[in-house]
Amino acid sequence: MLTLKTFAVFSTLPRLLALGLLLSLLGHAAAAAEGEKTALSTDNWRDVLQGEWMLEFYAPWCPACRQLQSEWHKFARTSKELGINTASVDVTREPGLSGRFFITSLPTIYHVRDGEFRQFSGPRQAADLSRFVLARQWEQVAPVSAWKAPPSILMTGMSWLFQLSMWIRQMHGWLTETLGLPTWGSYVVFGLATLLLGLCLGLVFILLVDLLFQPKRKHLVPSEKEENASEGQAEDEVEKVELGGQGDENVDNGDSQASDTEDGNIGVQDGDPASSEEEVGELDDGAGD
Fold first, then answer.
1. Mean per-residue pLDDT of the chain
2. Taking the model in full, what pTM does it have?
3. Could you tell me which of 177, 173, 172, 203 has the C-alpha nearest to residue 189?
4. Transmembrane region positions (predicted)?
5. What pLDDT score was predicted for residue 139?
């Protein structure tokens, strides 16, 4: 005959089993969460530059990404045993990282070790992912070039471009849905904003060029035409000087001739009286005849 105490023990046994099952499920969930507790963003993505990581880029609307999730969870639960870190990136929430890692297809898996980035292109099963890490198969994959690596200046600019595109998309939705503008009205607003921004950037660029590259003073070199003109002017001046000298000589000669004529007349007037008397006598004889 069962006592009340025994009945109480048997009555609590299902509760204990249910509690144990619940704790087991919570443990598995905690292990899975531990494997994927790191969520990368534009603020903490540089954490992957240290240590060894496996990164998954996905989107909620991607069917292939949804198929990968179960295998990725299995792989993430073993990440602690493998000595690596795992993280997932939702490209719809982090467009900057999508541009920085140059994600062109989904899902995309990257292996990162000490700042070297390699894209995983093998089978996407949990066992294959673990083998890729344990067997160091990543050594057979060429790393991403330095100019194309996420920390590079080019990829930083690409990240800003993707963030700008997402901001424009959000602004377009705000203009059309919240303010009620038509689609063409939103395009007009963005077109005017683009023109204004281009004018401002052009003005700043011109000012910087004038400031950094100021024109140097140049010594003026006379051209051939100017040299020929100056030579012609010099020749004209020489000819004028020569003509002026000849004119002076002619004037001097005229003055000398005039002076000689005057001297002759004076000589006739001042001649001796005998010659003048003879001339007068000859004139009288002619008159008598």
1. 76
2. 0.57
3. 172
4. 184-209
5. 93
